[in-house]
Design goal:
It is a single chain. It contains nine helices and twelve strands. It has 297 residues and is an alpha/beta fold. It folds into two domains: 4-69, no CATH class; 82-129 and 166-286, Rossmann fold, CATH 3.40.50. The termini are far apart. Mean pLDDT is 78; it is low at 1-77. Residues 98-273 form the Thymidylate kinase-like domain. Its EC number is 2.7.4.9. InterPro entries: P-loop_NTPase, Thymidylate_kin-like_dom, Thymidylate_kin_CS, Thymidylate_kinase. This is Thymidylate kinase.
């Protein structure tokens, strides 16, 4: 029987530090985040699950060992390498993220951008977060479909873990020259969890060290207009008042990498604006623009 590794994380009041949760396998074992409720992860090799703020100390136990650890501040960022520290590198693919409220048109425009880049002869792929094909993603999918209930802190860390489990492959693809069109990324995770009332800095902490997008396209739409579109209300977060809060937090997260596009324009006009911005971004990355880490400064 495989050993069980249990991380008991105190999310109560007190002195908090950022902890990187890195699990190393002894073959196969299960990793459990014991917060308000427990979440089980099947792990077959060393993997980073995320970064959380925890009260010190915490206890790490398994069938093989039991020891008390005191936490010091550590980060998940690996920005010391030249290609992640502002130093010019060789040509690479671009990391392009589409963000916006539910029913803002992200999925449609992502697919159109993929076809556009491929039509120009560029290597490109379309990614979506959450990636519901992974073990973590399946838990998220069940939650979003209202088939399960999870604590707000727990589901936030699951969303972050879902991005971390694809980070290495994302970097590999970009360095090989493939541009990635990504439907939702860390900004969504932080905006939606903050809208629930979680502290925005706490929400950002697990995302620190992920790859920073080269371009974020924000499809701007009033929540009331989004609610008028077909299919609205099918998932947990598609509630008008909640989407208004999400929109406000998106504005807080906006930075220099963002291009805001009016999502109420005709689809063809939106497509043209996105094509211009994306092609410029792809050319910059082919010219040696370095990769960087998200929220690392």
């Amino acid at each position: 029987m495989a050993p069980e590794l249990v991380l008991n994380l105190d999310l109560g009041q007190g002195e908090f530090h950022v902890l990187s949760l890195m699990c190393f396998s002894f073959g196969n074992f299960s990793c459990k985040l014991d917060m308000t409720i427990a979440c089980n992860f099947a792990v077959s090799k060393a993997s980073i699950l995320g970064a959380v703020k925890v009260k010190k100390p915490f206890r790490l136990t398994s069938n093989y060992f039991s020891r008390k650890y005191f936490v010091r501040k550590i980060t998940m960022s690996n920005c010391q390498r030249n290609d992640l520290n502002g130093v010019s590198t060789e040509a690479r693919g671009a990391l392009i993220v589409l963000e916006g409220l539910d029913r803002s048109g992200k999925t449609s425009q992502s697919s159109r951008l993929l076809s556009y880049l491929e039509g120009l002869g560029h290597s490109a792929e379309l990614w979506r977060f959450p990636d519901r094909t992974t073990s973590v993603g399946k838990m998220i999918s069940s939650y979003l479909s209202n088939e399960s209930q999870l604590d707000d802190h727990t589901i936030h860390l699951l969303f972050s873990a879902n991005r971390w489990e694809k980070k290495s492959l994302m970097e590999e693809k970009l360095k090989s020259g493939t541009s990635l069109i990504v439907d939702r990324y860390s900004y969504s995770g932080v905006a939606f969890s903050s809208a629930k009332g979680l502290d925005i800095d706490w929400c950002k902490a697990p995302e620190i060290g992920l790859l920073a997008p080269d371009l974020v396209i924000y499809l701007n739409i009033l929540p009331e207009k989004a609610a008028e579109r077909g299919g609205y209300g099918g998932e947990r977060y598609e509630k008008l008042e909640f989407q208004k809060k999400v929109a406000a937090y998106y504005q807080i997260l906006r930075d220099a990498s963002w291009k805001v596009v009016d999502a109420l324009l005709p689809i063809e006009e939106i497509e043209k604006q996105l094509q211009v911005a994306v092609l410029d971004c792809v050319k910059a990355c082919q010219g040696g623009k370095p990769l960087s880490c998200l929220w690392s400064s």
